[in-house]
């Protein structure tokens, strides 16, 4: 079973780090089964779970190692420990001896470990202490005279015969020796509450260090203490905030039944969860916690078939099912109203229930609309047809092209027939996969928004709907469905309204490229439906554009043609064209070389003649033999990735990064994406989708919010009855204070943000999703190796142990190793990742050899056995911002290569599964590789949101590959240690600790950097070619007034305190424009100096201004990634004078 394999990895690492790890060799095992260490002394062999003698000091850290481990953090953050509530109780003066115990627990070479617990009055506790001690002996070989040092392990187990007498206010510290072992249990009374006390229980090594060296015999290994209560421990009370916001109160309600029973000091704490009361608590140096999955609900009696919903003859049955869904939801809400909650949480409970009713009423309204409006019904049916078609076609395997031996290529593994939604026998792996079923929350979300997209004047159109659902739950499917509905309802209302209907924005290029492939399948389905219904959906193609930076795709046709020719002529293997697979039939697209490497084919890519002797690039599937619909179409696939094409075609769905929108002041030709034609407003997008909203925060969020002023104005149609703006939908799996963030970004108003699904009364149940305690969740394991000589040593050993465990664990078949074969190493910075990259081919590989030789003797193994037990690192990968954009798609494809049952030799390295993939936050969203089950996190990430998102990249297929996450905490970092010591509390309610985000769109750094950008952007994109021609004429007063009014209103809504200073800056920028009399909007490339002084109005912030401009021209962002001003050094002539003494 998958859980067994995961447990094997956990136990292997625990034995490797903590011990004991006996090897069944002659001379290495005592008669009682205990180990004998020969090659390494205990303190070298094991690096965690050790209690050192008093006086042991940090040693053996080189300067390089210290550079890795030392942090500039002065103290632990309080983000995990919300504080134990000591109010309404007595605090006792802590004796100096008792305080020293905590210090010993926190020392680098700690001599104690402690846990703080709450014990009810009248109760008593007992303790059980276990450890291992090693005695050193030397043995001389009679024949060779060789002297061997050996360490014999002796297990130690102690239980107190009588229950401890707890300390009281007269004697707040009690000490209990653990026999004559040198260990001691200390109990300190720290605080008294009304009916319980808070105590710190410490296990300490009382031995004193003799001399300068630490002796292994004076250390206790595998140290553990379990304390037991007769009546059950009391939970530790949490401190209450003086000022409690809505989110804080919601978390108190949702997690009111999740209690914290202990805090560790120098260790973590584990406690009994199986019984009604917590009867035992123990120290843990290897804590683990399984976060059970929140899964979409299956609602009894409700069937949500996409196929049925696409058919006219099933319409009445569909309405019945949708009504039943609404009814079941109403019944669930009614049950909440009968649930009793504490008095201090009743108002919060009523707020939650009220939000649920709002959702239910919107769903019912959507069902009524389906029954009453013919266009809504038809758009809904076509949406369902498109979505099931997308699932069937996107799910097809990659079909590779191979050399046909005759100068051409053929499909190597072609599927026999492409899927037909009306013929289930054609569905690929129908018996193994679920096709065409909506999850209730997905369809409920779409029902809620049917009116918003049908009626442009609907009040609900002004509501920002935020899909909040754990990663992997199906958020993307929900908003892709809404996108398809939007496309069809827009065309049904006006078949000639063929401009851009949807703007879909992401923050990371990795996610953008990956989601483009998925969205492309939906658009292909929509386009085929349009082709078959031209009389009502029009003749204009339904298409999709990928609008990203030039590092990812060519931005100009001439660049695309040039790069295509380089590929075709075998001058490069770098492929910037993103699409590597036909979204409709699965046929490979891209580079295919002949067997001898002399002929290069590029199936799926074509260069065609364009207007005026130009050329153009298109995607055209080459799979004609299998009758792919888009191979038979002269115009090819409705996909565009080149900026020039996107500005010309104005794709129905434009998918891009938020950074691309910073280019708008430079690209007036992009006005078509917002419904303008040469300055005249023709139409507007109807839907804006912002994925991974939690990433739009901090400096990036402030810049995005600033530019949103311009984007909202460009998308708004002014009508006599009022302005009409697009519907905004956002999604996230981790968010806090979403209302404030959305308002700061979109100016929608605090009360116009709706989180879906709305929360119920418990974190594990929102009707549409529930915690499944019977399924495998993601298991987190914490490691803090206080006995390690350096952080680098700890990391190297962990990587090696996990690689080795995956190679040697017991499995039914070799492919069972696959989920844990690739270890994804997650780092908080590229600097740290760069250091780790140097370990792979040297240190980690060397330690793999150490582990192998520790367990096996080459002389006793056959060649086959050697292959079975020896692990090598064949292939590593990096996923960071350092990867060129054209390599991102290929890197993703590499991660999908599973571990084969037989490994080839190193000369076929391209076919090997990746052993180690090192990554930064580039993968924290959107990476969806089902085979990945293992991750190592180096240090606690900066935010809980990032931690959740990053670790959710593994274990996405919980049945076959339940996730296993090792978190490597660094003893020298107080923040890391704080998370480690409260490991169980933190992971038991992860989402409760998601930090609120900060967005300040009109703060001084932002407006100084970008206010002029949105001013100029609005002016250029809302006017025609005459206005945008060089030289840039100073705008008419009516244009200035319009832009000024837009910005003023936005600031008044979002942050009135910044209004005066911002408008002063507005006037200052306009004065600069008027005074400078610029000759160009943007810098002219390769200008002739004799032609004059072409001063631009704006130039890229990343470029150094030309000296000839004489300080004129405004540096303007081309990305939203930085708000901080940069400084440049320059040489100037200066006169130095003597300073007065």
TrEMBL record:
Domain Helicase C-terminal intervals: 843-1003
SUPFAM superfamilies: P-loop containing nucleoside triphosphate hydrolases
InterPro entries named in the record: Helicase_C-like (IPR001650), P-loop_NTPase (IPR027417)
Membrane-spanning intervals of the chain: none
Name this polypeptide is given: Helicase C-terminal domain-containing protein
Lineage start: Bacteria, Bacillati, Bacillota, Clostridia, Lachnospirales
């Amino acid at each position: 079973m998958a859980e067994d394999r995961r447990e094997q990895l956990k136990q292997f690492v625990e034995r490797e780090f903590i011990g004991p790890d006996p090897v069944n060799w002659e001379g290495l095992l005592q008669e009682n089964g205990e180990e004998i260490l020969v090659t390494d002394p205990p303190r070298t062999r094991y690096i965690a779970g050790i209690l050192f003698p008093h006086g042991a000091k940090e040693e053996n850290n080189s300067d390089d190692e210290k550079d890795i481990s030392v942090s500039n953090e002065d103290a632990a953050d309080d983000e995990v420990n919300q504080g134990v509530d000591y109010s309404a109780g007595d605090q006792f003066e802590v004796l100096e001896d008792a305080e020293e115990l905590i210090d010993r627990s926190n020392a680098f070479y700690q001599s104690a470990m402690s846990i703080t617990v709450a014990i009810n009055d009248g109760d008593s506790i007992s303790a059980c202490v276990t450890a291992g001690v090693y005695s050193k002996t030397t043995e001389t070989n009679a024949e060779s005279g060789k002297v061997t040092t050996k360490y014999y392990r002796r297990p130690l187990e102690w239980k107190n015969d009588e229950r401890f007498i707890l300390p009281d206010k007269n004697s707040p510290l009690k000490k209990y020796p653990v026999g004559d072992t040198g260990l001691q249990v200390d109990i300190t009374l720290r605080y008294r509450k009304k009916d319980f006390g808070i105590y710190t229980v410490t296990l300490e090594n009382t031995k004193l260090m003799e001399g300068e060296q630490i002796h292994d015999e004076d250390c206790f290994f595998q140290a553990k203490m379990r304390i037991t209560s007769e009546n059950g421990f009391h939970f530790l009370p949490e401190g209450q905030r003086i000022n409690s916001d809505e989110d804080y109160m919601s978390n108190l309600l949702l997690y009111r039944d999740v209690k914290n029973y202990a805090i560790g000091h120098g260790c973590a704490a584990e406690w009994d969860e199986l019984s009604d009361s917590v009867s035992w608590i123990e120290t843990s140096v290897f804590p683990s916690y399984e976060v059970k999955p929140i899964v979409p609900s299956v609602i009894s009696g409700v069937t949500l078939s996409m196929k049925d919903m696409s058919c006219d003859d099933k319409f009445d049955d569909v309405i019945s099912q949708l009504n039943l869904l609404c009814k079941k939801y109403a019944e669930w809400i009614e049950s909440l109203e009968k649930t009793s909650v504490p008095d201090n949480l009743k108002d919060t409970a009523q707020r939650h229930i009220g939000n649920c009713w709002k959702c239910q009423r919107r769903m019912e309204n959507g069902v009524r609309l389906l029954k009453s409006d013919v266009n809504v019904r038809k758009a809904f049916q076509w949406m369902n047809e498109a979505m099931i078609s997308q699932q069937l076609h996107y799910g097809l395997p990659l079909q590779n092209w191979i050399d046909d031996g005759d100068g051409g290529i053929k499909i190597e593994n072609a599927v026999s027939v492409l899927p037909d939604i009306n013929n289930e026998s054609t569905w690929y792996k129908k018996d193994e996969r679920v096709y065409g079923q909506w999850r209730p929350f997905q369809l409920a979300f779409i029902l809620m928004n049917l009116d918003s997209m049908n009626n442009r004047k609907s009040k609900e159109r002004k509501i920002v709907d935020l899909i909040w659902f754990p990663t992997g739950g199906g958020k993307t499917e929900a908003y892709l469905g809404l996108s398809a509905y939007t496309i069809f309802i827009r065309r049904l209302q006006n078949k000639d309204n063929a401009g851009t209907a949807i703007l879909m924005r992401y923050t990371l290029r990795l996610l953008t490229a990956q989601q483009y492939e998925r969205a492309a399948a939906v658009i292909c389905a929509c386009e085929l439906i349009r082709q078959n219904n031209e009389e009502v959906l029009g003749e204009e193609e339904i298409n999709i554009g990928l609008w990203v930076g030039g590092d990812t795709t060519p931005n100009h046709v001439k660049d695309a043609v040039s790069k295509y020719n380089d590929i075709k002529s075998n001058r490069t293997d770098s492929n910037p064209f993103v699409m590597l697979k036909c979204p409709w039939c699965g046929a490979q697209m891209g580079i295919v070389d002949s067997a001898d490497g002399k002929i290069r084919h590029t199936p799926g890519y074509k260069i065609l003649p364009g207007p005026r002797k130009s050329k153009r690039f298109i995607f055209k599937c080459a799979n004609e033999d299998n009758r792919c619909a888009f191979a038979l179409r002269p115009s090819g696939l409705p996909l565009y990735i080149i900026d020039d094409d996107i500005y010309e075609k104005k794709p129905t769905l434009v998918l891009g990064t938020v950074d691309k929108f910073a280019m708008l002041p430079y690209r007036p030709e992009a006005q078509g994406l917002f419904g303008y034609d040469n300055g005249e407003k023709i139409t507007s997008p109807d839907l804006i989708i912002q994925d991974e909203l939690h990433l739009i925060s901090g400096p990036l969020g402030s810049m995005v919010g600033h530019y949103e002023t311009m984007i909202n104005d460009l998308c708004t149609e002014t009508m006599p009855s009022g302005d009409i703006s697009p519907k905004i939908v956002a999604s996230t799996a981790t968010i806090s204070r979403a209302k404030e963030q959305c308002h700061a970004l979109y100016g929608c108003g605090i009360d116009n943000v709706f989180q879906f699904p709305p929360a119920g009364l418990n974190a594990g149940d929102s009707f549409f999703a529930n915690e499944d305690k019977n399924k495998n969740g993601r298991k987190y394991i914490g490691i803090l190796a206080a006995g390690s000589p350096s952080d680098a040593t700890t990391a190297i050993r962990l990587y090696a142990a996990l690689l080795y465990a995956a190679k040697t664990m017991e499995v039914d078949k070799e492919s069972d190793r696959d989920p844990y074969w690739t270890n994804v190493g997650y780092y908080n910075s590229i600097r740290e990742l760069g250091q780790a990259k140097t370990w792979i081919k040297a240190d980690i590989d060397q330690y793999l050899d150490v582990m192998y030789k520790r367990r096996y003797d080459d002389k006793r193994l056959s060649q086959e056995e050697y292959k079975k037990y020896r692990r090598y690192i064949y292939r590593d990968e990096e996923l960071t911002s350092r990867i060129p954009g054209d390599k991102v798609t290929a890197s993703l494809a590499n991660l999908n290569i599973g571990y084969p049952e037989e490994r080839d030799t190193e000369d076929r390295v391209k076919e090997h599964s990746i052993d180690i993939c090192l990554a930064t936050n580039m993968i924290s969203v959107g990476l969806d590789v089902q085979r990945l089950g293992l991750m190592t996190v180096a240090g606690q990430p900066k935010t809980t949101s990032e931690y959740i998102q990053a670790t959710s990249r593994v274990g996405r297929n919980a049945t076959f590959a339940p996730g296993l996450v090792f978190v490597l905490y660094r003893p020298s970092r107080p923040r890391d240690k704080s998370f480690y010591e409260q490991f169980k509390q933190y992971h038991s309610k992860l989402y409760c600790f998601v930090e609120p985000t900060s967005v300040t769109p009109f703060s001084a750094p932002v407006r100084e950097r970008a206010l002029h950008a949105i001013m100029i952007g609005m002016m250029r994109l809302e006017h025609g070619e005459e206005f945008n021609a060089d030289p840039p004429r100073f705008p008419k007063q009516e244009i200035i007034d319009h832009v000024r009014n837009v910005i003023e209103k936005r600031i008044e809504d979002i942050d009135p305190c910044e209004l005066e200073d911002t408008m002063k800056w507005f006037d200052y920028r306009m004065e600069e424009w008027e005074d400078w009399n610029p000759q160009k909007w943007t810098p002219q490339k390769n200008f002739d100096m004799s032609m004059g002084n072409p001063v631009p109005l704006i130039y890229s912030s990343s470029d150094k201004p030309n000296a000839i401009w004489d300080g004129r021209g405004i540096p303007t962002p081309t990305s939203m990634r930085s708000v901080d001003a940069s400084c440049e050094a320059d040489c100037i002539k200066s006169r130095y004078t003597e300073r007065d003494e």
